[in-house]
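[step 3/7] fold_predict: job queued, chain A
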Amino acid sequence: MTDVLIYGDTIRHPELRHEVPLTLGDPFLYAEHDDRRYITITDFEWPRLQDAGVDAELISPFKLGLDDLLDSGMKYWEMALELTLRAVQQIGVTEAIVPHTFPLMVGEHLRANGIELTPEREFFDRRRRVKNESELAGIRRAQRAAEAGMDAARDLFRRAQQSNGSLVVDGKPLTSERVKLAIQDAFTKHGCSAEEFIVSHGAQSAIGHDMGSGQIRAGEPIVIDLWPKDGETACYADMTRTYCIGDVPHELREYHRLAKESLDRSLEAVRAGAIGADVYAVSCEPFHREGHKTLLNKEPGEVIEDGYFHSLGHGVGLDVHEQPGLGRAGAEDLLAGDVVTLEPGLYRRGWGGCRLEDIVLVTNAGAENLTDYPYELEP
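[step 4/7] structure written:
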C-alpha cells in the first residue's frame, strides 16, 4: 500500500477533513503506512478524535520531544517542522504521496531530511469523489438549507410592490443586500453558513459569478445561486433558480425554457459510467438547435459573451467545486456515489441571463435528484 502524508487543518484542507471528520483549526500530521493510520496532534484534541471514532493511532508531540524543543528557544514554526519530521521518521515513512496543497515549507524540510514526496492530485480527488453516508447526510442538510434560503428570497419577492418605478417591501427598497440577509438567516436556522452567494439582477446576471448588488427592479432577471455549507460535516450543496417580478420579458421566458430543457435532458443522461463531456454535449443540444453559442460550437480562440458560455457542472462535497467535471474537458467516467451539479444557463451581455441548477447523486440506475424545488420564473 502506498504511504500517504497530509498536513494542515480540517478547515482549509478537504483531503484531511475527508479522513478526520472534525473541525480542527490548528495544523497537524496525518499519515498512512503499512495499512495503518496515524495522527500527530496535541493531546487535548484526543478526546474529540476518540469520541468521533477516528480509527488512527494518536501520537503525542510530547512523546516526540516537545518539552526539549520548548526549552531550546526554537520558534514555534521551527518546532512544528521538527515534530513533523520526527513523527514521519517514527512511523517509518520514507516516501509518500501528498496532496497538491501540501505546505511547501513542510515538504522542503522533509525532503531535506531524506523523505521522498510526490504530489498526486488525482489520487486525493478520486478518494473523495464517492461520498460516505456522513457526507451525503451533510449534503442533504445543506440542500434543505439552500431551499429554505430560496424560500426566504421568494417571500420578499412575493411581497414586493412597485412604487415610482422601483420595488419596495414594507416600505423599504428591495435590494440584493436585503435578500442576502434573509437568505443568510435561513441558512443559520438550518445549521449552515455561507461566506458568499449570488443574488444578481439585470445585467449583473449575465456576468459569471457577479455576486449581485443594488436595487432590484421589476421586469428584470434575478439569478439566485446558493452554496451553503453544513455545520456538522463541512459539506456543501449548490442550487440556482432564476426569477422575475412583474411582467416577464419574452426573451427571459425563452432563456428559461431552453435552460429547463437542457437540465431535464442532462438529468436523463447522468448515470454511473457516463462520461462527463458526453453529458455536457447533451446539455448543449437545445441551445445549438436555437442558434446559441456554446463552448462546443464556437470558433477556436473565440471568446463568447452571449450564449451558454460555461460547463454543465462539477462535483460537490467538502469543496463546492471539486471533481468530476462536466464540461468540454470532462473525460472521466461518473462514479456511483459522485454528487454533481447540473446548471445550464443562457446569457446576453448587458441585458441579463437565466440559470437553473440542481444537485444530483450519481447511481448505477441514473441520477437521484437531491434538489426538491420548483423552477417557475414567477416567485
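[step 5/7] annotate
Residues 4-129 form a domain with the Creatine Amidinohydrolase; Chain A, domain 1 fold (CATH 3.40.350.10).
The first helix runs from residue 14 to 19.
exit 0
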